[in-house]
Amino acid sequence: MVIKTTEFVKSSGKWQECPEPNLPEYAFIGRSNVGKSSLINAMMNHKDLAKTSQTPGKTQLINHFLINENWYLTDLPGYGYARVSKSMRKDFEKINTNYILNRQNLVNLFVLVDSRHSPQQIDIEFIEWCGESGIPFSIVFTKADKLKPNTVNANVEIYRNELLKSWEELPDMYVTSAEKKIGGDEILEFITKTNEL
Ligand code: GDP
Predict the structure, then answer these.
(1) Could you tell me the residue ranges of all domains in the chain?
(2) Which among 33, 38, 58 is the best mutation to test ligand 1's pocket, defined by most ligand atoms within 8 Å of the CB?
């Protein structure tokens, strides 16, 4: 897919405030600092469409971008900030889970995990929740340039095995690097193929 136009549409504090669900939508989520903004910017060929490193504790919003005038890219608040209060963490979770469960035009959720780390409990729990809730999603490994390819593959394998403990079928997985512009094209290809309501 060639990215011709990218347009910020709006920030919403809850799913009811999101733009009318009249176009296919693809959302990106992950722990804060996972590299979500960088990957979105790399895929969109844009320096600062999504803001990098949002300050933990700031109001977290659902950001909608209109791409090529025919689909929405949604940047969801990061989960798992270590340094915010429990009640604030609960608020982030509520924004995200309500959006994910209710957004009727959501075609796919891309769940980002850092390729350098072994499966983290918070990510596994979130991924399992997506599976149990019947949410269409894929796993996106970020920052792959920081490791040797063999180590990335080994870490992906560890993830697969972890998920196979409870599932028979695995979601699609993408290995990416915003820094080296790897993997974004595969994600865009998937979006091209599924871009229908
Ligand atoms: P977000 O909080 O998930 O939006 O994460 P950011 O996109 O702000 O990235 C967090 C940090 O990781 C920043 O310092 C980025 O420069 C760095 N980072 C993000 N993606 C990559 C990548 O693909 N490779 C490398 N080496 N660093 C990255």
Answers:
(1) 6-194
(2) 38
Residues 95, 170: Cα–Cα separation, whole Å: 26
pTM of the full predicted structure? 0.94
User: CA dist 178 to 49, 78, 151, Å?
Assistant: 14, 17, 18
Q: Is 0.95 exceeded by the ipTM?
A: yes
Q: What is the pLDDT of residues 129-185, one digit of tens each?
A: 999 999 999 999 999 999 999 999 999 999 999 999 989 999 999 999 999 999 999
35 lines ligand 1 (CB under 6 A): yes
How many angstroms separate the alpha carbon of residue 46 from the centre of ligand 1?
15
Name the superfamily (CATH) of residues 6-194: P-loop containing nucleotide triphosphate hydrolases (3.40.50.300)
Q: Which amino acid is at 53?
A: S
